[in-house]
């Protein structure tokens, strides 16, 4: 079946370009549902590097179909397609878990299209998490040789088009438009990490009195953790994220994708940072605990990072909780 992935992409593509009325009334959407079910049965072999090209072609067709048809569907048709969209996003999250590097590149390529879909479904947490967890932000001043390259290879003086904007845009935390507001800083093309650190400290002070304000900044905090090369920024942003999740544990699932990407990072300091907080995070996100522990174990096996201590501490903490 894995050898038939290119044919599946062709079959899907032949149906995705049809008019919205035809797509919704002649069971073509059902064909997409059945094909997605087949892909789900092929996990995790589906995400091997040798299959990435064919898999990306299939996922491309799904994104094109969502982008082309969702805007023109009636409300009851959108509700029906929501199930397909949720299953598709779950598959993409599994892609991120099993092959983070390839998945991140694919999500970055389709960021604009996914934001269009997010505009139709602004409360879809799985999509918000995916966009926030794979954000591309330039947190370095111009001329810094360590600054990450823009996701776009197009030449030009500005890289603003390559900067991922958070889906939600809640109000600031009371700085009255201060230049050190975290959101306004991340909205710039380039920014000094020291400014980010100062803004995080301001947010830390405000949240000590009003912790619920952190929930409005979860997307920005995830972006700092995932993209900043300043470990002080990463550490403080991660601590604020945990504080926000403690205040509202229901939001823990929104950081699963980002946490897994941190574990898969090539940066040893970032991996050690998130492993140090593994016990605390697993307790807050217990429904994902087995997956998080398994990934931490894989990190210990495949790298020279010692994950045995945080895994042991996590299990002890869970045993204490349940007696």
User: Count the helices. How many?
Assistant: 17
Order of helices and strands: HHHHHHHHHHHHHHHHH
Sheet with the most strands?
Answer: none
| Poorly predicted parts | 136-179
Helix proportion: 55-70%
Which structural category fits the helices and strands?
mainly alpha
| Shape category | globular
Q: Span between N and C termini?
A: 46 Å
Averaged pLDDT: 77
Using the 3D structure, state the CATH architecture of the largest domain: Alpha Horseshoe
Supply the number of structural domains.
2
DSSP strand tally = 0
CATH topology of the largest domain: Leucine-rich Repeat Variant
Strand proportion, as a percent range, falls in under 5%
In angstroms, what is the radius of gyration? 21 Å
The CATH C-level class name of the largest domain: Mainly Alpha
Region (Disordered): 143-180
Protein name: Putative integrator complex subunit 1
GO cellular component, one term: integrator complex
Domain Integrator complex subunit 1 R4: 192-286
Characteristics:
single chain, 323 residues, mainly alpha, Son of sevenless (SoS) protein, Chain S, domain 1, Leucine-rich Repeat Variant, 2 domains, 17 helices, 63% helix, 0% strand
What does this structure look like?
It is a single chain. The chain has 323 residues and is mostly helical. The protein is globular and about 55 Å long. The chain has 17 helices and no strands. The protein starts with a helix and ends with a helix. The chain has helices at residues 5-16, 20-25, 28-41, 52-69, 75-98, 100-109, 111-120, 125-133, 182-186, 193-209, 218-227, 231-247, 256-263, 268-276, 278-284, 289-302, 308-322. This is Putative integrator complex subunit 1. Residues 143-180 are annotated as: Disordered. Residues 144-170 have a biased composition (Low complexity). Residues 1-122 form the Integrator complex subunit 1 R3 domain.
């Amino acid at each position: 079946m894995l050898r038939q992935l290119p044919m599946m992409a062709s079959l899907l593509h032949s149906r995705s370009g049809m008019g919205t009325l035809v797509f919704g009334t002649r069971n073509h959407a059902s064909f997409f549902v059945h094909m997605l079910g087949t892909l789900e049965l092929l996990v995790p072999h589906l995400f091997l590097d040798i299959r990435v090209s064919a898999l990306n072609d299939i996922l491309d067709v799904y994104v094109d179909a969502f982008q082309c048809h969702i805007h023109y569907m009636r409300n009851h048709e959108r509700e029906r397609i929501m199930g397909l969209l949720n299953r598709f996003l779950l598959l993409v999250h599994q892609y991120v878990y099993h092959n983070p590097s390839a998945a991140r590149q694919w999500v970055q390529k389709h960021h604009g299209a996914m934001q269009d879909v997010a505009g139709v479904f602004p409360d879809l947490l799985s999509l918000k998490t995916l966009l926030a967890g794979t954000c591309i932000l330039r947190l370095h001043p111009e001329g810094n040789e360590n600054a990450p390259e823009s996701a776009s290879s197009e030449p030009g003086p500005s890289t603003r088009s390559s900067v991922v904007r958070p889906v939600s845009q809640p109000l600031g935390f009371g700085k009255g438009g201060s230049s050190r507001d975290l959101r306004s800083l991340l909205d710039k093309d380039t920014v000094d990490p020291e400014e980010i650190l100062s803004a995080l400290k301001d947010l830390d002070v405000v949240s000590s009195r009003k912790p619920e304000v952190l929930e409005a900044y979860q997307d920005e905090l995830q972006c700092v953790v995932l993209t900043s090369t300043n470990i002080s920024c990463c550490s403080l942003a991660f601590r604020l994220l945990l504080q926000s999740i403690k205040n509202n544990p229901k939001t823990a699932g929104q950081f699963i994708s980002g946490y897994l990407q941190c574990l898969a990072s090539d940066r040893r300091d970032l991996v050690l940072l998130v492993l140090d907080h593994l016990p605390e995070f697993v307790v807050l996100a217990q429904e994902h605990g087995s997956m998080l522990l398994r990934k931490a174990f894989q990190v210990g096996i495949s790298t020279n990072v010692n994950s045995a201590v945080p895994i042991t501490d996590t299990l002890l903490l869970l045993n204490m909780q349940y007696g």
